[in-house]
């Protein structure tokens, strides 16, 4: 069961500066939305607000219609939101094996041990890591670590998956391979997802819709085709030129 | 109803844990300050006697001399510690790691043990002693020199730690365009200055608190003036209380400097980065650099030669003199270190993650550390020396409370720095996965920072072991720790036995540090 997400006029201050300024965004159930934007535009902050790691100074956040954050308060703490996240640095726990990394959240949610093992095996097989349960993150390749991070998020069967530039450190072939895998999984599970990136090509492969965040405000939203057809800012024009140059090559 | 209560409790786990730590610190460290003030207000006669005393010139002369002396000690420690830190951490001098370890060792010993060592070398009947050398040692200059050599490793170690944490690429980029000397003065030192400044502040606070060295070298110190009013001969606790006020003002000034200038910056530079740093090649100067670095490093160890020489004939009689001193040192130090490590894990993490209330508790731990032990000791006596609390004041528990109050900042900052340098996403991922505070703490935070926890425990344990100036004011009858036993025996006991007892202390500390170093060895990933 995946969940719609709604962000309504969210404001986040850092000192005197607005990191997010009146940001509103609705994501339907089973929809994948890419948040695009240059560095420092507030993409990760928006993700932290949705996750419940940061309270918005103003504005509302709803999950499946339930108000979870409002006006400087977190009403439903991050531990109870049932979401999952893949951070840019993956944040795999180095002292736990692959199985340990996947089992952690299940044991926190008191999933019985039989079911835990079964879910871990199933998800590891899905991401192509069967037989690597006993390895530590330090003994895995970059691509394998990425798969563990995705598996760790999926094994919880979350209400929505949030991804914060998870593929930005990978080479192009590996990125393509993992984008394809992610796309398949999100489609299979009909999972609501928010995918933060500054690369329009990644958004093209995964997202149903895009929102462009610049200077803490949403400057443009729509499908990838709509963005390419009518770029509303220099940033989106640059993204379009980048995509066109890649296509021409 | 039950589920609702359980969910509420889980949500409150983190504030409850921080609250519990806060209560422990308030009881141990803030209560003494409160009782200082209450004690003054409730005893107007003693207050006026104390104020009259402060109205005279004598205590102010001693106080200003103590502040000036602590300032000179801090300055000398910086002059020794900064160049040594650079040489031992960032250049290719031979055996630099060993030299740094040997140089740092005396900082974990009670300073007066090293003063004893210098006395056995340069006192009138010392190994290399004469009338003149003894005169020089038993003077203000001698006391300052001994303290500077004892405390310089604090600066060296902090500077070295900060330099080892610097990203090598920053230095490599500078080396392309500049000579090593310029890189050191224009890149390395500016990056490491918060650590050096923190070192200077810590040395100033330690020197101002120091009781053993000036007492032994017969130099009139302000802490000794306060201490004298708590002894049987000149017992006047009210006067002691009033005399602590100028020191309290200095402590508040140190706290303000730490808060505003040094603290936040030192967090950024004091990393616990593993792996080999690139070093600045000294070229033709390498041999000279090696000689200078090793001479500076070994200078702090020289007094141990004096102790060993004098102890030759005292070791046989050790059993008759040591009593329960060792046990009285180790047991409260171990209990306090364990408590302090628990506090450090909760509070250090909260400080690194800027949780509400953490900054105030951090300030309290800094204040308790920079406040001269005499002030804290007088406050602890005022708070706990009453009929209802004799089960605490009359036992080793009061020593544990004193240690918790005085040394909480050391393990807490060690752990806070480790957490601040790790990715916040490691714990945030666990939160998103549904793990509440205690599960995260035990399953993620503690295993991730096992080395920092070991280091925090060791640091707390060794500093509690070396303590003299806090415990000497209120140790329970018959429970004198080894440091107190040595300094009381020094006045009228046989010198070889005093030296042998000092060597026992050195051996215990060295053993703890060796075990700690083995435990902290970097391991290859599994």
Give the secondary structure arrangement, pairings included:
The complex is a heterodimer of chains A (249) and B (526).
Chain A: E1 5-14, E2 17-27, E3 32-36, H1 43-51, E4 58-63, E5 66-70, E6 73-74, E7 83-86, H2 98-108, H3 113-126, H4 142-154, E8 160-164, H5 172-188, E9 192-197, H6 200-206, E10 209-214, E11 217-222, H7 224-229, H8 234-248
Parallel strand pairs in A: 3-9, 3-10, 7-8, 8-9
Antiparallel strand pairs in A: 1-2, 1-4, 4-5, 5-6, 10-11
Helix pairs in contact in A: 2-3, 2-4
Chain B: H1 2-42, H2 44-55, H3 57-90, H4 96-104, H5 111-122, H6 131-137, H7 140-164, H8 168-175, H9 180-209, H10 212-216, H11 222-228, H12 237-269, H13 286-299, H14 302-311, H15 318-322, H16 325-352, H17 358-370, H18 373-384, H19 390-393, H20 397-407, H21 409-421, H22 425-432, H23 437-448, H24 450-466, H25 482-492, H26 495-519
Helix pairs in contact in B: 1-17, 1-18, 1-20, 2-12, 3-4, 3-7, 3-9, 3-13, 4-13, 5-7, 5-14, 7-9, 8-9, 9-12, 11-12, 12-17, 12-18, 14-26, 16-17, 16-20, 16-21, 16-24, 16-25, 18-20, 21-24, 22-23, 24-26, 25-26
Describe the structure.
- The complex is a heterodimer of chains A (249) and B (526).
- Chain A has 249 residues and is of the alpha/beta class.
- Helices cover 37% and strands 27% of the residues of chain A.
- Chain A contains eight helices and eleven strands.
- In chain A, the strands form two sheets. A six-stranded mixed beta sheet of chain A has the order 7-8-9-3-10-11, with helices on both faces.
- In chain A, helix 2 runs parallel beside helix 4.
- The longest helix of chain A has 17 residues, at 172-188.
- The model of chain A has no long low-confidence stretch (mean pLDDT 92).
- Chain B is mostly helical and 526 residues long.
- Chain B is 77% helix and 0% strand.
- Chain B is built from 26 helices and no strands.
- In chain B, helix 4 (96-104) runs parallel beside helix 13 (286-299) and helix 16 packs parallel to helix 20 (397-407).
- The radius of gyration of chain B is 24 Å and the shape is globular.
- The relative contact order of chain B is 0.14.
């Amino acid at each position: 069961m995946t969940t719609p997400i709604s962000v309504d006029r969210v404001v986040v201050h850092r000192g005197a500066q607005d990191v997010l300024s009146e940001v509103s965004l609705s994501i339907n159930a089973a929809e994948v939305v890419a948040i695009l934007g240059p560095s420092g535009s507030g993409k990760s902050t928006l993700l932290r607000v949705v996750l419940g790691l940061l309270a918005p100074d103003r504005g509302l956040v709803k999950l499946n219609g339930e108000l979870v954050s409002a006006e400087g308060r977190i009403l439903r703490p991050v531990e109870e939101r049932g979401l999952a996240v893949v951070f840019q640095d993956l944040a795999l726990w180095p002292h736990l094996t692959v199985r340990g990394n996947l089992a952690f959240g299940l044991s926190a949610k008191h999933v019985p041990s039989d079911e835990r093992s079964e879910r871990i095996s199933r998800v590891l097989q899905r991401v192509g890591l069967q037989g690597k349960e006993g390895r530590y993150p330090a003994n895995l390749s970059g691509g394998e670590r990425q798969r563990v991070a995705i598996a760790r998020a999926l094994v919880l069967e979350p209400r929505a998956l949030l991804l914060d530039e998870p593929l930005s450190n990978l080479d192009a072939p590996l990125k393509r391979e993992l984008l394809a895998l992610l796309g398949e999984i999100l489609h299979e599970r009909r999972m609501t997802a928010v995918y933060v990136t500054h690369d329009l090509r990644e958004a093209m492969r995964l997202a149903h819709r895009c929102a462009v965040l610049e200077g803490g405000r949403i400057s443009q939203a729509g499908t990838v085709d709509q963005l390419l057809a009518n770029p509303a800012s220099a940033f989106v024009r640059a993204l379009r030129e980048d995509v066109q140059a890649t296509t021409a090559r | 109803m039950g589920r609702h209560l359980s969910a509420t409790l889980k949500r409150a786990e983190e504030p409850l844990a921080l609250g519990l730590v806060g209560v422990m610190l308030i009881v141990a460290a803030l209560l003494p300050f409160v009782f200082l003030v209450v004690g003054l207000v409730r005893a107007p006669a003693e207050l006026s006697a104390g104020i009259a005393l402060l109205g005279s010139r004598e205590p102010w002369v001693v106080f200003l001399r103590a502040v000036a002396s602590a300032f000179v000690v801090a300055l000398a420690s910086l002059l020794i510690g900064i160049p040594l830190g650079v040489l031992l951490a960032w250049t290719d001098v031979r055996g630099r790691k060993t030299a740094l370890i040997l140089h740092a060792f005396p900082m974990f010993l009670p300073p007066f043990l090293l003063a004893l060592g210098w006395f056995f070398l340069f006192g009138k009947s010392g190994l290399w002693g004469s009338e003149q050398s003894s005169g020089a040692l038993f003077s203000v200059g001698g006391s300052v020199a001994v303290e500077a050599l004892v405390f310089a490793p604090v600066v060296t170690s902090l500077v070295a730690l900060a330099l080892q944490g610097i990203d090598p690429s920053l230095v490599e980029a500078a080396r392309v365009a500049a000579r090593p000397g310029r890189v050191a003065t224009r890149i390395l030192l500016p990056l490491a200055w918060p650590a050096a400044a923190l070192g200077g502040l810590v040395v100033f606070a330690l020197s101002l608190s120091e009781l053993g060295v000036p007492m032994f070298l017969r130099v009139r110190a302000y802490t000794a003036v306060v201490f004298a009013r708590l002894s049987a001969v000149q017992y006047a606790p009210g006067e002691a209380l009033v005399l602590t006020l100028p020191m309290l003002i200095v402590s508040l000034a140190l706290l303000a400097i730490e808060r505003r200038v040094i603290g936040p910056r030192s967090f950024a530079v004091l990393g616990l980065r593993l792996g080999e740093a690139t070093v600045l090649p000294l070229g033709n100067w390498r041999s000279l650099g090696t000689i200078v670095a090793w001479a500076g490093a070994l200078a702090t160890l020289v007094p141990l030669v004096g102790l060993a020489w004098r102890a030759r004939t005292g070791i046989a009689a050790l059993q008759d003199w040591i009593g329960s001193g060792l046990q009285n040192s180790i047991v409260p130090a171990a209990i306090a270190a364990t408590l302090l490590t628990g506090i450090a894990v909760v509070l250090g993490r909260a400080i690194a993650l800027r949780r509400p209330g953490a900054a105030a508790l951090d300030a309290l731990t800094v204040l308790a550390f920079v406040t001269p032990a005499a002030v804290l000791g007088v406050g602890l006596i005022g708070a706990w020396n009453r009929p209802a609390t004799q089960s605490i004041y009359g036992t080793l528990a009061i020593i544990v409370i004193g240690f918790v109050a005085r040394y909480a900042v050391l393990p807490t900052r060690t752990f806070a720095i480790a957490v601040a340098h790790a990715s916040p996403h490691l714990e945030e991922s666990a939160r998103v996965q549904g793990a509440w505070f205690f599960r995260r703490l035990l399953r993620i935070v503690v295993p991730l920072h096992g080395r920092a926890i070991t280091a925090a425990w060791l640091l707390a344990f060794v500093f509690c072991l070396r303590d003299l100036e806090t415990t000497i004011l209120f140790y329970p009858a018959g429970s004198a720790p080894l440091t107190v036993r040595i300094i009381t025996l020094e006045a009228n006991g046989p010198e070889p036995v005093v030296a042998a007892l000092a060597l026992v202390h050195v051996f215990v500390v060295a053993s703890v540090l060796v075990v700690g170093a083995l435990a902290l060895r970097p391991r290859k990933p599994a």
